[in-house]
Amino acid sequence: MSTRILNLSRREFLAAGVRAGVGLTLGLSLPGVARVAETPSGQSGTLAPPVFAPNAFVRIGADDRVAVIAKHLEMGQGAHTGMATLVAEELDARWPQIEILAAPADAKRYNNLFWGPAQGTGGSTAIANAFEQMRKAGATARAMLVQAAARAWTVPEQEIEVSEGLLRHSASQRQATFGELAAAAAALPVPDEIALKAPAQFKLIGQDLERKDLWPKIDGTAVFTQDVERPGMLVAVVAHPPRFGAKVRSFDPVETLKQPGVRQVVSIPSGIAVLGDHYWAAELGRRALKVDWDERAAMVEGSAEISAQYRRRLEQPGVAARAEGDPDTLLARAARVVRADYAFPFLAHAAMEPMNCVIERRGEGGVELWYGAQVQTADQAAVARTLGLEPTQVRINTLFAGGSFGRRANPASDYVVEAAEILKAIEGRSPVKLVWSREDDMRAGWFRPAYMHRMEAVLGEDGLPVAWRNRIVGQSIAAGTAFESLLVEEGVDATSVEGAANLPYDIPNLKVELQTTELPVPIQWWRSVGSTHTGYATETFIDALAREAGRDPVAYRRALLAKHPRHLGVLALAVKHSQWGQPIAANRGRGVAVHESFNSYVAMVAEVTLEEGGRYRVDLVDVAVDCGIAVNPDIIRAQMEGGLGFGLSALLADEITIEAGAVVQSNFSGYRVLRANQMPQVRVHIVPSAESPTGVGEPATPVIGPAVANALAAITGRLYSQLPVRTA
Amino acid sequence: MQILTINGAEHRIDAPPEMPLLWAIRDLVGLKGTKYGCGIAQCGACTLLINGLPQRSCVLPLSATVGRAITTIEGLDDRVGQAVKSAWAELAVPQCGYCQSGQVMAATGLLSRNPSPTDAEIADQMAGNICRCCTYHRVKQAVRRAADALA
Ligand code: FES
Ligand code: FES
User: Fold this and answer.
1) Which atom of ligand 2 is nearest the CA belonging to A403?
2) Cβ(B45) to ligand 1 under 6 A?
3) What is the pLDDT of residues B3-37, one digit of tens each?
4) Could you give phi then psi for residue A240, rounded to 5 degrees?
5) Position A12 pLDDT exceeds 90
6) pTM (predicted TM-score)
7) For chain B, how long is the longest CA-to-CA vector?
C-alpha cells in the first residue's frame, strides 16, 4: 500500500505544493527526533513522526514505513531498487514497507565510494560501491531496534529475532513493529561496529523483488524533469549554433516576441534562449528568431575528412598503453600477418527523454534544481561557478532520468550550465525549465567518439597468436575535464584503451598503442565507454584468427584464457545453453564473444539469419553474466536484455555523421535505432557467485556486436570491420 | 477556444488550432503522462488513443481532435488497458520508464483492434515505439501475455 507514496508519483508531486515532490522539503520540524534535523532536506518528511534516523540512508517512521535514501540516480538500471534491497536485507524489513527517496546533492554524505568526494552514478558502480555501505546502514538500524526492544522488554538482545519487519521475543511472546520501536531506537547511541550477514543468510538479496518504480512507470505517474511545474515557471528553448564552434554575431527577436506566449529572448554563451509560457510557445518563438551566426571559428571538417586523417594516423605508432615482448619485430618479419582496420562512427546517446533541467532562485540567495542529475557534485560546482555561488548554495533534487547511457554525466555539465545561464540572464525573475528538442539533443555533440583500430597478428605453428598489435586512434574523453587526473596517465586515456589494453588472451608478444586526436566535436562516455569499440575490435579479430587457424572459435578462446577463470566461466555457460556445435542451415550462423567490463564478465552466443539481399536478422542470443552476487536477478536479466539491445542498435544502425562542422542527423528519422521488430529472443544465464557484486548496466553492451558479427562471419567468412554493419 | 474531450472530461483550451495535441495536453491541460520524444511521429512516446485508435499526438493539430474521444495513460482503464498494464507489471517491462506510457497505449490500441495478434504482428506494430532502454524483449512478451489474458 505504501510503496508508491514517496516514489515521485505525480499526484503527490502536484499536491505537495511547496514540498513539490520527494526529498525536497526544507526545515520540516520533526519534534522529538533531533537527529533528523541534521538531514539537509528532511527527506523523511512524509513519514509519521517521531522518525528514527540512525544514518544518512535509513528513516523509519512511527507509522512503520521505512524510507531508504538512494544516493544513486535511477535512470532505468534499477539502482533505487538495488539500494533499497541492500538496506532491507540487513534490516530484515518487509519489502512492501520500504519506500525510496532520492538523496539530496551532498558529496560528504552521498558520495560514490569509488569516486572519492564526489556524488555520482556511472561506470556501473552503484551496487558495487554501495554493497557494504547500504547493508551497514540497514544493519545499524536493525541493531538499534533490537536494543530498544531488549530494553523495553527487559530481555537479552540475543533472544530477539527480527524477520519481515517484526521484532519478536518468543519466550515472552512479545513482538513489535519497527514503527513502534522507532522513538526508543532513536534515543540510543549509534553503534560503531556492526556485523553483516553471510551470503547464505540472505533473504531478499537474490530474489526477484518488484522494482519500486514499476507501477509509476506503467501508469504514467512517474515524474521526469519534463513534467516538473513550478509557480510562475517559464519554459526555455535555445537556438544553438548550427556548427561546432560557431557563435552568435547578432540576433533579431522582433518576430519572436510577437508570438503569443513568448515572454523573453536572451543571449547566453551557448546561443539565444527563448522563454515562453509553455513549450510550444517557446518553440514557435525560436522558429521565428533571426540569428546571424559568426562562423569564423567554426569547425570546417566533416566525418569524411576525419576518417581520412585517422586512416593516415593508423600508419604511425602511438603511445604504448601496454607492451609485452616484441610484437613489432615479429610482425615485420612474419611471412603472413593477419590484419584488419576498423572504423567506428560517432554515436549519440539519444536517451528517450531529451536533456532538460529546471532551475529557480531560492529566497536566501542560492538556487534549486530539479532534473535527472547523474554527477551531482560536478553539476553543483559548475552551476555555482556560473552563478557566483558556493556549491552548497546549489540544491539539487534528483528526479528519475528518462535514460542517460552516460549523457547526463556530462563532464562540462553542459545542459545544466545552460539552464543556469538562462536563469542568470533573466536575473532569476522566474523559475526556468530548459527543454531540449530531439534535434537539440542530437546535434549538441557529446558523442561517443569516432575511433579507428588497426589489428595485426602473427600466428604460431599451433595456430595460436604469438604476436598481437592493436593501434587505436581517437579523441580522449577525459582530457581537459575534471576526470583527467584520474583517467589519463602518461598520455594514455584509460577510457580509450580499456578492453584492449587489458586483453585477457595469453599472447607472448603484445602491444596496444594509442594515438589521441583533437577535434572540435564534444565527446563523452557512452554506455560501456571504451569497450564500445575495443570489445568489438578484439572479439571479432580473435574470431578472425580462429578462422585463419581453422579452429573452433570457442575452443580457440579457451586455449588462450587459461588464466582467466571468470571469462572461461561465462563462456562455458553461454555455450552450454546454446546450440553451439550443432548443425545449422547454410544461411544461418552462430557467433560467440566474451568480454569483461566494469569487473563484470559477459559471454554471448548469437544466432543470426542472413536473408536474401544481404539483410540479416538476429534470432536468439544466449547471454551468460558473472557479476558476483546477484542482488536482483530479474534486474540483471533486464540489464542484459536492454544492454545488448543498446549495443545491437550500434551494430545495426546508429551513426552520427558530420558535414562541414554540422551534425547531419537531427532526429530518429536520420539516426536509426533498434526497434521492437529487430530485437532478438534473449535468454540470460547468471553465474552463481559469492564474489562481491559488480555492475550490470553496461557490460552487455559491448558483447553483442562482436557475437553477431562473428555469426555473420561464420556464414560468409568475412570480417566486418566498418560500423554500423548495415548489410552483409 | 477549442473544446477537447480527454478521458471523458471536457477541457476548454485557449490555443491556436495548429498547436500539437501533445503540448496542449501536457502544458495546458496538465496531464504529464504522455511524453515528448521526437515531435515528428518517429518514436511513439506521445501515443494516445483517439476514438480508441493509437495516434501520435506530437503531430496531431488540436483542431483535428475536437469532438473526438481522447484517452491518455491517465484515463486508461478499460478491460484491454487493464490487461496490458497487468502484463507490463508481471513482466517488469519498464526501465527508465520514459517511453512506457506510449508503449502501453500502443499495445492497448493494437489489442483493441486485433485481440489475437501473431508474434510477427506484435513485433511489427510495436516497432513504431522506440525504447532506448531496449525493453523490447519484454514489451513483446507482455503484449502476448495481455492477449492471452484477454482471450
Ligand atoms: S513524440 Fe510523437 S512520435 Fe515521438
Ligand atoms: S524504458 Fe527507457 S526508453 Fe523505454
Assistant:
1) 2
2) yes
3) 999 999 999 999 999 999 999 999 999 999 999 99
4) -100, 155
5) no
6) 0.94
7) 44
Spell out the CATH class of A5-219.
alpha beta
A147-173, pLDDT tens digit by residue? 999 999 999 999 999 999 999 999 999
Please say if the pLDDT value at position A21 is more than 70.
Answer: no
Is the ipTM higher than 0.90? The answer is: yes
Q: What is the pLDDT of residues A159-216, one digit of tens each?
A: 999 999 999 999 999 999 999 999 999 999 999 999 999 999 999 999 999 999 999 9
What's the pLDDT at A167?
A: 98
CA dist A700 and A695 (Å) reads 10
**DSSP class of residue A20?**
-
Residue of A75, A352, A353 to test ligand 2 pocket, by largest number of atoms within 8 Å of CB: A352
Domain spanning A225-295+355-435: which CATH class is it, in words?
alpha beta
Grid cell, residue A347, equals: 554515436
Give the residue extent of every domain in chain B: 2-75, 79-150
Judge whether B2-75 and B79-150 match in fold. no
Four-way CATH pick for B79-150: 1.10.150.120, 3.20.20.140, 3.40.50.1820, 3.90.230.10: 1.10.150.120
Q: Chain A contacts of B73, Cβ < 8 Å? A: 219-220
- Would you call B33 and A221 a contact, using CB atoms and an 8 Å cutoff? yes
Q: Is the pLDDT of residue A35 over 90?
A: no
Closest listed ligand to the CA of B55:
1
Residues A422 and A426: their CA atoms lie apart, in Å, by: 6
Residue A721 has pLDDT above 90, yes or no: yes
Domain boundaries, chain A: 5-219, 225-295+355-435, 303-347+447-716
* Residue among B133, B140, B144 with most chain A CBs within 10 A, to mutate: B133
Tell me the CA–centroid distance for residue A330 and ligand 2, in Å: 49
> In this model, does residue A65 exceed pLDDT 90?
yes
DSSP codes joined into one string, A147-214 = HHHHHHHT--GGGEEEETTEEEETTTTEEEEHHHHHHHHHTSPPPS------GGG-SSTTS-PPPTTT
> A437 CA distance to ligand 2 centroid (A)?
17
| Cβ(A625)–Cβ(A640) below 8 Å | yes
**Identity of the amino acid at B67:** G
Contacts of B132 in chain A (CB under 8 A): 349-352, 403, 405, 646, 673
- What spacing in Å lies between the alpha carbon of A66 and ligand 2's midpoint? 28
Q: Which residues surround ligand 2 with Cβ inside 6 Å? A: A 76, 352, 403; B 94-100, 131-133, 135
CATH superfamily ID and name for B2-75: Beta-grasp domain (3.10.20.30)
Q: Which fold has domain A303-347+447-716?
A: Aldehyde Oxidoreductase; domain 4 (3.30.365)
Q: Where are the beta strands (DSSP E) in A403-537?
A: 432-435, 451-459, 465-475, 488-489, 492-493, 509-517
